[in-house]
Amino acid sequence: MDLSAYAEHAVRLVNTEQPARGEDLLRSPDDVPALIAPVRRIPSRVTDDDVARLRAVRTRLRAVFTAAAAGREADAVATLNGLLAEFPVHPRLTGHDASPWHLHLAGDAVGPAEGFAAIAGMGLAVQLTTHGIDRLGVCRALPCRNVFLDLSANRSRRHCSERCASRANVALYRARRRAREPQPDRHT
């Protein structure tokens, strides 16, 4: 079982918010199933408290990515360790949907926010210890501030998506072209 794959859950949660654009995809209990469905069984009841808890975890996870991208390794690790302590993993063997026995990191007794936070934190911790803290990134295409995991062979990823990479490259090209164009004389 590749536990580092659970780091994508941290990415999913953090990217529910785009502060520079004023967008938030995690506003009410109705927004939680879309976030949780790929990770675990959707709980029968999601409350406003679950949303508030997920939003607080999202802020702390963003701080981990931001600190890592800025080269502040100790800050990123301290924040992540705080999350791991607050949201411990509750491993359990399970077999469902005709699949063989496998490990779930958060049991059904754990609430939706706590379970998701535990899985995201553990995945991010495994990702960081297995592949290095420099694999956690924040998109450099402004105003996008999505986070990503750099899984490239040469650790060269700088954007969250091909779309952002293309947009940033076009902006650089246009800036270089403007810099080469002669400027009109303003004194005539």
UniProtKB/TrEMBL annotation:
SUPFAM superfamilies named among the record's database cross-references: Jann2411-like (SSF160904)
Endpoints of the signal sequence: none
Domain Zinc finger CGNR, chain residue ranges per copy: 135-177
Name the record gives this protein: Zf-CGNR multi-domain protein
Species per Swiss-Prot/TrEMBL record: Embleya scabrispora
